[in-house]
Amino acid sequence: MVRMKIALIQFARSKEEKQKNIERMIDLLENINDVDLVCLPENWFGVEPLSKEEFEDLISEFKKLAVDKGYNLLTGAGYMWKGENVFDSGYVIDTKGRVLGHSDKMFPSESVGETGFLSDGEKLPVFEVDKLKFGVVVCVDAVYPEVSRSLADKGVKVIFNPSNIPENRLGMWKSIGITRAVENGIFFIFINNTSTYYPDGRKVSGHSFVASPNGEIVSELDEDEQVFEFEIDLGKIDEVRSRWGFLERVNKRDFFDSSYESES
């Protein structure tokens, strides 16, 4: 496969109305056709963690949708109870309705108070559908270059970044996305909510984007809620890596050689 058709849902989240958000998201998903993969943003259902029963009901609905519509579904990410702890996790469901696994937010945000209730992530797998290897890096984990690099080292060609990023950080996020794409020779896909707010009042206003391995923003949305469909040419990755071998070259060097001696 050289090309893959992807749909992103930039979602106008109601912060407090979990069930309303879920129902609206399912309605949007039911109207997506003829794509290979769909990805949702972070905490699209709200900031109240899902209970075990709510999670099971939601996954059951998502499995049916993936089978009926014939697409692979990345559930974004969101707070959910697992035993006595809360994690920020996103799941991958294939076209046969199988849950392939999940990715966690590895480093909860201290600045918005997540470290006070959210457990550090434990799972950061590589997924493969339709011969595409990809990873999911949740929100602020994109700021840690080691997270994306660990996935690139395992062969991923695309990193999805389901997020809930405020308007005043969008310029920074675009720079981060371009950097991760270039240094790893991948497509970096940022999926944001819109028309909602942080607890501290900062506006979240969309502007999801796709950054290519050659350092370009090839698509960027505005502030509207929308389902955005596009194609990525995976052949671009090998083409760029043949010119910019950053990933291959750095892996051949040992920068932490304990035998290093000072020249002075």
First-residue to last-residue Cα separation: 54 Å
CATH superfamily: Carbon-nitrogen hydrolase
CATH architectural name: 4-Layer Sandwich
The mean pLDDT is 93
Q: Helix/strand-derived class?
A: alpha/beta
Helices and strands, in N-to-C order? EHEHEEEEEEHEHEEEEEEHH
Q: What is the number of independent domains?
A: 1
CATH fold description: Nitrilase/N-carbamoyl-D-aminoacid amidohydrolase
The proportion of strand residues reads 25-35%
Describe the structure.
There is one protein chain. The protein is globular. The termini are far apart. With 264 residues, the protein is of the alpha/beta class. The strands form three sheets. Strands 1, 2, 3, 4, 5, 6 and 15 form a seven-stranded mixed beta sheet that branches. The protein is built from six helices and 15 strands. It has one domain: Carbon-nitrogen hydrolase (Nitrilase/N-carbamoyl-D-aminoacid amidohydrolase, 4-Layer Sandwich), CATH 3.60.110.10. InterPro entries: C-N_Hydrolase, C-N_Hydrolase_sf. Residues 4-234 form the CN hydrolase domain. This is CN hydrolase domain-containing protein. Pfam families: CN_hydrolase.
